[in-house]
Please model this.
Amino acid sequence: MVRVVKSTIVDAPVEAVWDVLRDFNGHDRWHPIVRDSHIEKGQASDRIGCVRRFHLQDGSELREQLLTLSDADMAFSYCLLDTPVPLLNYVAHVRLSPVTDGDRTFWLWESRFDTPAGREQELRVMVAENVYQSGIDAIRTLVEVRP
Amino acid sequence: MPRVYVSSVIDAPAARVWERVRDFNGLPRWVPAVRDSRIENGEASDRIGCVRDFHLQNGDRLREKLLGLSDYDLFCTYSILESPMPLTDYVATLRLTPVTDGDRTFAEWTAEFDCAEAEAEGLVTGIGRDVFQAAFSSLKRQMAG
Model:
């Protein structure tokens, strides 16, 4: 089993970051690799169990299901249902915490998954850099607008 | 139940920060308000259930009991047995989480307790600012040095 952990400090209040991240269907508006996204069956994007069906810029289609969403903990988790890339048993967790010393945000994004033998390193780097790091960089640009 | 939450970012790897804070008898080395400390009954300071008996710079005496300690999850949980503060059922946790971006440390300190309603605001502010934040500020200076 592969584990990927990315964590960073964003120079914006935690409410501002959560405001962007909590919309499970909002990633096509900030993640550079996501072209379009919609929630299946017309459900609300904060309904536990809802499924987002989305396309990456390269045209591949993925489906992910919301497993947990908590406004109290500013956290959510989701799993992959369908993907052209062999990420198996993929479950990811996102959690924000306030940094009271400076009114900033701690952001943790982690996941566990299985891969076909021999592809662990390649897929770990793909998830860590192309998905998590590029997403973190995009959110940072969006919310760090202090003078 | 009043709750205190203070968090900070320390510019050093979590393993290094943990090395400094994991010793339940080590408060005088990094918390400026603490003058001296000893573990009762000559026990090891990482034995769950051990009690630290310590004095603040102003002479106040406190006794605190170690409830949980994890070298894997990097946290320490303890309760107050005796203190001059007008509170009861005080349980606090100090937790470190690595910040992979920059190899820094996210440090969180939470406490919950019971007290008279009129005392709550003063205690939350006092513990949060004068104890937890003051300790984090000292830790930041030490780790930078």
Observations:
- The mean pLDDT of chain A is 96.
